[in-house]
Amino acid sequence: MREQYMEAVLAVAALIPSARVLSYGDIAALLDCGGPRQVGAVMSAQGSDAPWWRVIRASGAAPLCHEGRALRHYREEGTALRGDVGAVVPAGKAVPWRVDMRVARWNPAEADFDAIDAITALLKEADASTD
Predict the structure, then answer these.
(1) Gap between the Cα atoms of 96 and 89, Å rounded
(2) How far apart are CA 115 and CA 77, in angstroms?
(3) What is the rounded distance in angstroms from the CA atom of residue 62 to the CA atom of residue 71?
C-alpha cells in the first residue's frame, strides 16, 4: 500500500474529535480515493498510534477483535452507543452493542474540510508525481 495513502488515512483519522466516529467508507469518500477495505487495511496495519476506535464499520460495529478496548474508549469519551453495553460476551462472540452512527457520526466543520482538502491535495500530488 502506498505510503502517501496510509499517511492520508491516518491524518483524517487524527482529525476525528472525541466521542465522534467515521466509517471506513466515510474516510475513503472524504479522501476521494480507495474504499472501505483500503481504509480498513491501513487502520489494521498502521492505526495503533491513531484514534483507531473512532474509525469503524458503517453498521456502528467496533473494529473486530478490539471491541472491549474500543468500548472503554467510547465510555471515556461519551460516544453514543446503543444496545446492551453491560453484557458479558464470551471471546469470539458478537457483542450486543454498537456505536449509534446517527448520533456519533462526525460532520466536519468548514475548518475541518480545509484540513481534509489539504490532506487530499497532498495525496493527489503524490499520485501525479508517480504517473
Answers:
(1) 8
(2) 23
(3) 8
Residue 47 grid coordinates: 492505526
Other beta carbons within 10 Å of 100: 15
* The model's pTM: 0.92
pLDDT tens per residue, range 72-105: 999 999 999 999 988 877 777 788 999 999 999 9
Burial class (CB in 10 A: 0-12, 13-18, 19+), 37: exposed
Least Cα distance to 127 among 31, 27, 29 occurs for 31
